[in-house]
Design brief:
Bound molecules: nicotinamide-adenine-dinucleotide, 2'deoxy-thymidine-5'-diphospho-alpha-D-glucose
Shape: globular
CATH topology of one domain: Rossmann fold
Radius of gyration: 19 Å
Structural class: alpha/beta
Strand order of the largest sheet: 3-2-1-4-5-6-10
Helix content: 40-55%
CATH superfamily of one domain: NAD(P)-binding Rossmann-like Domain
Number of helices: 12
Number of strands: 12
Order of helices and strands: EHEEHEHHEHEEHEEHEEHEHHHH
Length: 340
């Protein structure tokens, strides 16, 4: 059995990754290490085979907890754990630095000490900043680090300490940078699930600014499969950008959701913009396509339909979140924007 240590595996992408790996391999055991912050949810892990999946409740910035949970000679660490929402990082950046930077350093130290064979850092296209909207430029692996939000700056910092661990200590590391993920179980603070949940409840849909910011969307399972293939075939020390060549303006995304749900465009409200709002993200995935042989499988129209269907069928999952501390967050962030 290969043993992999997955951090943040109770969150949106981490849980999709764990589920996919358990389904598609037979020789992998997962140790899933997660602090269960507001974004971590044990419901996301229901039904997993306990003989191949062990959940450990712990914080990646807690050195003792990480050293206790990480087995000697583990095959890999996949570091998904992070504070991941840009708007929250604008409200307060402390937790972003603690988890995303210090937490990554603790994991790198533990990886070195425990002789972990490979360290995969799950990063983001946001570390490369924003592209002009009206040209055909793309993010490549050579694009400079130009983060614009506290979240993106914390993820860029994490990349630098991963790089340093490789250069200084010879740790086998790879960094992956993906664009915007969508799919089942995404916390409803992010654009797509927030709009689905609000539309299902006939509540206003808050679109920032002019709604013409562009994001490059990928179905979550396609991202997870890319990470696994990069782990198996990728070259140590390399960065791999992951994207599905699927640029969309936010307003187009929101209208598509309303169309699928059969709800009126009159629910849309253009509200005060996000400070420092990146205009456009667009990834050139040539390297992962040619060197690894990965290609996305799920088309946008199909992925969005599947996602909406999941939220329709799991309204109790959404409502449990919307009735908890999310309510207070929503009021803080959207109260004055929407006149609530
Ligand atoms: P998420 O917010 O849904 O989940 C984050 C998970 O990390 C949660 O389960 C949370 O409990 C856990 N966590 C947070 N702090 C922790 C800590 N100190 N110790 C242990 N666990 C902790 O995030 P996501 O959207 O699933 O993103 C996962 C990773 O992928 C992040 O590193 C993010 O930067 C990266 N990423 C996300 C996207 C996207 O579109 N969502 C795109 C590219 C990269
Ligand atoms: O690109 C990868 C990144 O994508 C990840 O690293 C982040 O973890 C993830 O959160 C995401 O960042 P974004 O800021 O692009 O995602 P978000 O869903 O917050 O917003 C997507 C776009 O929609 C962005 O242009 C802001 C806009 N938006 C968002 C919200 C929540 C709105 O117009 N209204 C909203 O209420």
């Amino acid at each position: 059995m290969r043993i992999i240590f997955v951090t943040g595996g109770a969150g949106f992408i981490g849980s999709a990754f764990v589920r996919l790996i358990l389904e598609e391999t037979s020789d992998v055991k997962v140790i899933n290490f997660d602090a269960l912050t507001y974004a971590g949810n044990l419901e996301n892990l229901k039904g997993l085979d306990p003989s191949r999946h062990e959940f450990v409740h712990g914080d990646i910035a807690d050195r003792k907890a990480v050293f206790e949970a990480l087995p000697e000679n583990a095959d890999a660490i996949f570091n998904f754990a992070a504070e991941s929402h840009v708007d929250r990082s604008i409200e307060s950046a402390d937790e972003f630095l603690r988890t995303n930077v210090l937490g990554t350093q603790v994991l790198l130290d533990a990886a070195r000490y425990k002789k972990v064979k490979r360290f995969i850092q799950i990063s983001t296209d946001e570390v490369m900043g924003s592209l002009p909207e009206d040209d055909k430029s793309f993010f490549t692996e050579q694009s400079p680090l130009r983060p614009n939000s506290p979240y993106a700056a914390s993820k860029a910092s994490a990349e630098l300490i991963v790089r340093a661990a490789r250069k200084t200590f010879g740790l086998d590391t790879i960094i992956t940078r993906c664009g915007n993920n969508y799919g089942p179980r995404q916390f409803p603070e992010k654009l797509i699930p927030l709009m689905i949940a609000n539309a299902m409840n006939d509540e206003p849909l808050p679109v920032y600014g002019d709604g013409k910011n562009v994001r490059d969307w990928i179905y979550v399972e396609d991202h997870c499969r890319a990470i696994w293939e990069i782990y198996e075939k990728g070259r140590s020390g390399e960065i791999y950008n992951i994207g599905a060549r699927n640029e969309r303006q936010n307003i187009e995304v929101v209208k598509s959701i309303l169309d699928i749900l059969g709800k009126p465009y009159s629910l849309i409200r253009f509200v005060q913009d996000r400070p420092g709002h990146d205009r456009r993200y667009a990834i050139d995935p040539t390297k992962v396509e040619t060197e690894i042989g990965w290609k996305p499988k799920v088309k946008w129209e199909e992925g969005l339909r599947r996602t909406i269907q999941w939220y329709q069928e799991n309204q109790d999952w959404v409502e449990r979140i919307r009735n908890g501390s999310y309510r207070e967050y929503y009021r803080r962030l959207y109260g004055s924007r929407l006149g609530l």
